[in-house]
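FAQ

Q: What does a record look like?
A: Structure on top, sequence underneath. For example:
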């Protein structure tokens, strides 16, 4: 548990694993003069019982006025597909119990940060908030979607139930977030970090090609972590009436994306330029079906005043600089 303490400041409890998004959320709220306590579920080795015990203690001790629940994926997509029970545990059981404990402890304001995986594959892009109602292909990791949809509905229900006038729980759904602070262990990082790592190694070792799995045509919406953190703060800072005006009845969440999407091959080319890798990028069929194209419709959130500010080139450069710093720190240990 990491903490910065300063008296007479608003208090925030951030609940989520180490990842680029949560690192950015932590930094953004500290810069906004919050007292931030960060509780890491993975520190307990996946034990929900131990984590919930830590959460109860943190709620009793810190008495936060706000919470952010951000259950970032803890394993690669292929592993999520093969271990659905673990996904449900990480993305349904733990977050819903976290929200319930926050409500019972009287935390007045809470933001749930969900994944774009709530949207079904095959829907017309970009995915709007109401697209969660479309039929879902159950082969595409629907356990994560089930968990995050339950959390979104839970936040809306707590905010609207009778006798909870002082409770204001909200949700924002992010596209693919990347940036400094991503998981560093080889093979478990997200796509951007994994490609940076492989191209950096290939450049140092003089390899003439880097292989990416699949045909490289899958298109995703790549959102820089700092912009994602601003989207979270914007969602949380809207007045209650404004939040209701910008969301739909029964679907009280907003979407945050970059405003465009790139194929995996286009992303790889941009990363190669950032890293300085001059070899070839080639595709190879992996035997694992690629996920669907995805892009989050952030029209409603943009109408409220938010928009991404960091260009892809600048975002990749900052991410690569963070990667190099983490490599240097690891070498020094």
């Amino acid at each position: 548990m990491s903490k910065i303490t300063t008296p007479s400041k608003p208090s925030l409890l951030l609940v989520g694993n180490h990842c680029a998004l949560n690192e950015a959320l932590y930094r953004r709220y500290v810069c906004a003069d919050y007292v931030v306590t960060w509780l890491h579920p993975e520190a307990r080795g996946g034990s929900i019982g131990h984590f919930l015990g830590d959460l109860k203690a943190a709620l009793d001790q810190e008495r936060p006025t706000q919470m952010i629940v951000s259950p970032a994926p803890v394993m690669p997509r292929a592993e999520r597909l093969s271990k659905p029970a673990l996904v449900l545990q990480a993305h349904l059981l733990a977050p819903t119990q976290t929200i319930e404990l926050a409500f019972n402890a009287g935390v007045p304001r809470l933001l749930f940060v969900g994944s774009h995986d709530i949207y079904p594959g095959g829907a017309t892009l970009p995915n709007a908030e109401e697209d969660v109602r479309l039929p879902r292909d159950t082969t595409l990791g629907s356990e994560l979607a089930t968990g995050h949809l339950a959390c979104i509905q839970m936040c809306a229900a707590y905010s609207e139930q009778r006798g909870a006038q002082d409770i204001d729980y909200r949700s924002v759904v992010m596209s693919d977030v990347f940036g400094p602070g991503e998981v560093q262990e080889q093979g478990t990082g997200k796509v951007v970090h994994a490609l940076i790592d492989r191209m950096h190694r290939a450049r140092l070792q003089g390899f003439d090609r880097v292989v990416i799995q699949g045909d490289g045509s899958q298109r995703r919406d790549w959102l820089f972590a700092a912009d994602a953190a601003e989207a979270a703060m914007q969602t949380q800072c809207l007045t209650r009436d404004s939040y209701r005006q910008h969301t739909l009845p029964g679907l009280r969440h907003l979407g945050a994306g970059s405003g465009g999407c790139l194929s995996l091959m286009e992303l790889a080319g941009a990363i190669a330029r950032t890293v300085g890798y001059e070899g070839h990028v080639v595709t190879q069929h992996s035997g694992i079906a690629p996920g669907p194209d995805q892009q989050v419709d952030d029209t409603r959130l943009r109408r409220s005043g938010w928009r991404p500010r960091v260009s892809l080139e600048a975002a990749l450069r900052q991410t690569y600089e963070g990667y190099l710093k983490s490599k240097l720190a690891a070498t020094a240990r």
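Q: Is there anything notable about this one?
A: The CA atoms of residues 216 and 270 lie 13 Å apart.
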